[in-house]
Design goal:
Layout lengths: L1 E9 L3 H10 L5 E4 L11 E4 L5 E4 L10 H10 L3 E3 L7 E5 L2 E4 L4 H6 L5 H7 L15 H8 L2 H16 L8 H4 L1 H10 L2 H10 L10 E3 L5 H10 L3 E2 L4 E7 L2 E6 L3 E9 L3 H11 L1 H8 L3 E12 L11 E3 L8 E5 L1 H4 L8 E9 L11 H16 L7 E12 L5 H13 L4 E3 L9 H21 L1
Helix pairs in contact: 1-10, 1-16, 2-16, 5-6, 8-9, 11-12, 12-15
Length: about 450
Amino acid sequence: MTRAVETVVLGAGISGLAYAHARGLGADLIVLEASARPGGLVHTLRGGNEGQVRCEVGPEALANASEPTLALLRELELELQELPAEAKKRYLVREGRLHAVPMAPLDLLKSPLLSAGGKARALTEKWRAPKRALDGSIADFVRHRLGHEVLESFVDPLVSGIHAGDPEQLSLRACFPEVARMVEEHGGLFAALAARRKSGGGKRPPGLMKPAGGMVELPRALARRLGAQLQLSGVARSLERRGERWVVDLETETCEAQRVVLALPAKAAESLLARACPPAACELATLRGESLVSVSTVFDRARVEHPLDGFGYLVPSREGQLQLGTLFSSSIDPGACPSSAVLLRTLLGGARHPEAVELSERELLERVDSEVGPLLGLRGSPEWFHVARYRETLPRYDLDHPRRVRAFEAAVAEAPGLCVLGNYLRGIGLPALIAAARALAGAHASAGARA
């Protein structure tokens, strides 16, 4: 059987769902998802006795939601909950102890996270050559502008927390393009921050938030709006251009379309592009991904000494631990477990220790006990746990990534009607993915209106 539509969207992760939603119910499209549920990595798991534990196995919350994300949330009429005020504190590990991250310049001067020399070096930032190190690694940039101590104590754990990567390998322009623009425009970071304060800073996006009931409510709401436009368990076996149409072969049917929006993980996209657009597939073949493992644990509250008054902590690589950090999930979302317990989520591996994703559950729990236990004062074994493994899931925005993206997008532009969305292009966070999806949908809607 052959089905003909204007647009086929391959993949019902956030990119594919947000694109289809923005096109509207009147659009002649279908979204095909290979798995049995929508949302991709955005998923909330129920566990424990009678499902009383609600843990995230993808993004923990929405951070710094941009206007496209806020617009989507308004359209879906989702009930949102902001983090409790006490959950906004962040911690860093130094010499086996937790220290609060300074949130203001004066706090930085009093913080034990930097030595007196490290603080003095950071304060010389405004005299650094403004054009130097903008096209290199994150590590090169930070060493030049703020010094080695800031790199080791602050930026290294921050990069591992966002990208699970190594700042020596990652491109500044690919990972933090806004930082490069700030320096180019104002000559330095401190000057850019001062200019932003002087201008009023503009409308700042809300902080961390999440849908009531967990992050899974976002893809669920999108799927409900799409209704019959969403088809699950539909594996695309091939994609090719035949005449003026794109043809997607599934196990049980064939779809023909004027346009295809590829919203798949990098490896799956590479596989389909090998025939549909070989030059683009060749660029994706050079991309590497970081592997992570997430261990969620529930402890009786009386067995945890730390007040868990924050979002969580990150661990610099110099601490020599397998964990990248631990989130205080029940502080972020007090309804995630019974009030007599706490829910923690420890992330391990990344570029530092890619082998972590292959460790057994027993070995991972031993790591939680030996690394997280002393920091938070954990006593005894968890009452419940869950392990999620992500093999080569987070794309590595390495030093070649800006060139890779330009070449990839140029190759795709040569294939009429082919479009690509994904976290391996210009941003890994949900707001970046939603913004890209809505921008593409807007362009296609405008093109249809002109036609």
